[in-house]
Specification:
The chain is 31% helix and 29% strand. By secondary structure, it is α+β, with helices and mostly antiparallel strands. It has a seven-stranded mixed β-sheet. The structure holds adenosine-5'-triphosphate.
C-alpha cells in the first residue's frame, strides 16, 4: 500500500468528526439524544451525496443507449415481497448473548460477544429485515405494506411497462436510485450499515446464453467506476462468492470490496440473478414478464445482471479514501483529495479582505462560475485559514481576489492538492477551470 494509505485505526473517527464538524453528516434527532443508526446529511453532505448519485446516473444511464431510469414507490404490498422471496428468506440469523443479553447477527461476531466476551448464545433464529407498516386508516392484513429493502423489485414489476413504452430489447437495463430500508440487527460503522440508506441499482436484462459474458462486463465496469472517481487501486478488490454462499436468487455474485479502517468489506455487489425474479413475478401475478424476439421468433425470460451499490456507503468510502493529512509550510493540514465531481464545493471565491471594491469583483467572479460549478464564498478570517478550511472539505480550487485584481482584472487560482497558485485573467477563468477539470 501507498504509505499515505496504510490502514489507520483512527481514520474512522477522524472522518466521523470531520463529517460532523463541517456539515457533511449529523446524527439524526441529535437534540433528542439521537436516533440510533439514522443520519441526516448536512449542507456539504447533501452536495456530495447528490454528486455521488449524479456520477452514477451519468455513467449508468446518461452515457448509455441501453439503460433507462425509473423511480418506483418505496411502499409495496406483501404480494411483491412474497414473490421476490423476501418475506420468506430476507432474514439474518439473530442470537442473544446469554450473559449480557445483547442481540447480534450471528454471522458477524465469530462466536464471541463483542460487548462482554461471552461465548454463550441462544439458538439462532431467522429475523426478517423488512420494515412492516400499515397503509391507510384500517388495520388488518389487507392494510399491510412494506418499505422496500432494495430498489430492484420496482424494476422487475415494471418490466412490461418499460418494454412497452421505450423501444429497447435485450441487452438493456433499468436503473434506479432511491431509499431502501432494512431493520439491521447491528447497524454499525457510521453510514456503512444503517437501517435507512440509499441504493443505486441497475437490472440488466440479457439473453440467457449471454448472461455470463455480461456478468463479467458489469463487474469490470463497476470496479472501474470507483477507480475513475479517485479511489486508489490498492484500496479496492473483487471478491467472488463461493457457490455455497450465494443468495437464494443468485447464480454468481462478486463484491467490489473497499479497504475500510476495519478491513476489507463490501462496497457493491454484482449478481447474476438468472431468470429468478421475472419468473417469480410472472407466476405470482399471472402476468407474463418475457421478451419476444421477433427475428428468432422466440419467446424467453431474460436473465438479469444486477450491479447493486449503496450511495451512502459509496460516499463514506470516497470520504475515507480522500482523507489525508500532509504538511504545508511546516504545518499539518487536513485535506480531502476528492475528485472534483464529488467535492461539495468545486470552487471557493475568496476576497482578500472585506473591502467593498474587492467584494464587488468577487461577486462578479462568482456570477461567472456559479452556473457551472458549486461555489462557496468566504470573507472571514485570514486567507491562510480560509485555504485550510476549503482543503478540509475538499474544494479543488480557491479563487482569491486581491487588490491587484482591481487593476489587472486577474485572480489567483490555488490548487488544493499541490497548493500551487497561478494568476488567471477573469475573462479566461471559466475556460481555464473547465480545462483543468477536463470539460471542454
Ligand atoms: P450485507 O451482507 O453486508 O448485509 P448485502 O450483501 O445484503 O449486505 P446487498 O443486498 O447486496 O447487500 O445490497 C447492495 C448494496 O447496498 C451493498 O453493497 C451496500 O452498498 C448497500 N447496502 C446494503 N445494506 C445496507 C445498509 N444497511 N446500509 C447501507 N448500505 C447498504
Amino acid at each position: 500500500m501507498d504509505s499515505d494509505l496504510s490502514p489507520d485505526p483512527e481514520l474512522l473517527d477522524k472522518v466521523i468528526n470531520l463529517a460532523k464538524r463541517r456539515g457533511f453528516i449529523f446524527q439524526s434527532a441529535e437534540i433528542y439524544g439521537g436516533f440510533r443508526s439514522t443520519y441526516d446529511y448536512g449542507p456539504l453532505g447533501v452536495n456530495m451525496l447528490r454528486n455521488v448519485k449524479a456520477a452514477w446516473w451519468r455513467s449508468m444511464v446518461q452515457m448509455r443507449l441501453d439503460v433507462v431510469g425509473i423511480d418506483a414507490a418505496i411502499l409495496g404490498p406483501p404480494a411483491v415481497w412474497a414473490a421476490s422471496g423476501h418475506l420468506e428468506t430476507f432474514t439474518d440469523p439473530l442470537v442473544d448473548c446469554r450473559k449480557c443479553k445483547e442481540r447480534w447477527r450471528e454471522d458477524k461476531i465469530d462466536g464471541v460477544c463483542p460487548n462482554c466476551g461471552s461465548t454463550e448464545f441462544t439458538e439462532a433464529r431467522a429475523f426478517n429485515l423488512m420494515f412492516k407498516t400499515q397503509a391507510g386508516p384500517v388495520e388488518g392484513e389487507g392494510a399491510t405494506a412494506y418499505l422496500r429493502p432494495e430498489t430492484a423489485q420496482g424494476m422487475f414489476t415494471n418490466f412490461n411497462n418499460v418494454l412497452a413504452t421505450i423501444r429497447k430489447k435485450p441487452p438493456f437495463g433499468i436503473a434506479q436510485i432511491g431509499k431502501s430500508f432494512r431493520n439491521e440487527i447491528t447497524p454499525q460503522n457510521f453510514v456503512f450499515r444503517t437501517r435507512e440508506f440509499e441504493q443505486m441499482e441497475m437490472e440488466y436484462f440479457v439473453a440467457p446464453a449471454e448472461a455470463e459474458e455480461w456478468y463479467r462486463y458489469w463487474i469490470d465496469q463497476r470496479f472501474n467506476w470507483y477507480l475513475d472517481l479517485g479511489i486508489p487501486s490498492d484500496r479496492l478488490r473483487l471478491h467472488e462468492h463461493a457457490l455455497a454462499d450465494l443468495s437464494h436468487y443468485s447464480r454468481g455474485t462478486t463484491d467490489v470490496e473497499f479497504a475500510y479502517p476495519w478491513g476489507w468489506d463490501e462496497l457493491e455487489g454484482i449478481a447474476n440473478r438468472g431468470d429468478y425474479d421475472l419468473t417469480q413475478h410472472s407466476n405470482a401475478s399471472g402476468t407474463k414478464l418475457e421478451y419476444f424476439d421477433q427475428a428468432a421468433n422466440e419467446r424467453y425470460t431474460p436473465y438479469v445482471i444486477e450491479p447493486a451499490a449503496g450511495a451512502t456507503r459509496a460516499m463514506m468510502a470516497f470520504l475515507l479514501a480522500a482523507y489525508h493529512e500532509d504538511e504545508v509550510e511546516g504545518e499539518t493540514r487536513t485535506v480531502l483529495r476528492l475528485d472534483w465531481r464529488l467535492a461539495p464545493y468545486q470552487v471557493a471565491v475568496l476576497p482578500l479582505s472585506k473591502k467593498p471594491e474587492l467584494e464587488g469583483v468577487s461577486k462578479e467572479v462568482l456570477a461567472i462560475l456559479q452556473p457551472h460549478f458549486a461555489c462557496d464564498y468566504d470573507v472571514t478570517q485570514s486567507i491562510g485559514r480560509r485555504y485550510r478550511r476549503q482543503d478540509e472539505v475538499g474544494t479543488p480550487f480557491c479563487i482569491t481576489v486581491d487588490f491587484d485584481s482591481l487593476e489587472d482584472r486577474a485572480v489567483t487560482v490555488r490548487d488544493r492538492d499541490t497548493t500551487a497558485q497561478v494568476r488567471v485573467p477573469i475573462a479566461e477563468l471559466l475556460s481555464s477551470l473547465r480545462e483543468r477539470t477536463n470539460q471542454e
